[in-house]
Write a structure and sequence with these properties.
Blueprint: H1 2-32, H2 36-62, H3 67-75, H4 82-97
Length: 113
């Protein structure tokens, strides 16, 4: 499913940029008196977050999620580390709902066991 792959990519990218903003750029601004990185990384996160929201909306509508679930997944892009946990849970749930689980990834058991 292309939307799920796009969601996974945007979730990771948004999460990494948010962590960069919070753990690197913000301390540089407030402790190092260097506001430049915050402006750049903050704007980057804003644009990426907009793309993330659009992809979550498209994915949520295509899978007929409840509005509350869509909003919670959207909010995961604003909390450090939450995007990573939400991504794992969403991907597992979508694969389970589609009946695929770990399609094509079954472990091979040797013939004597």
């Amino acid at each position: 499913m292309p939307l799920l792959k796009a969601y996974r990519v945007m979730s990771y990218v948004t999460g990494v940029v948010l962590l960069t903003l919070v753990l690197i750029a913000m301390p540089l601004k407030y402790f190092g008196d260097t506001p430049g990185p915050t402006m750049i990384v903050g704007q980057l996160h804003g644009y990426l977050y907009m793309a993330y929201v659009v992809i979550v909306l498209l994915l949520g509508f295509s899978l007929r999620w409840r509005p509350v679930r869509i909003v919670l997944v959207m909010l995961a892009g604003t909390v450090p580390f939450a995007a990573f946990f939400a991504e794992r849970r969403i991907v597992a749930n979508v694969r389970e709902e589609q009946g695929g689980g770990r399609q094509g990834r079954e472990e091979k058991v040797p013939a004597g066991e």
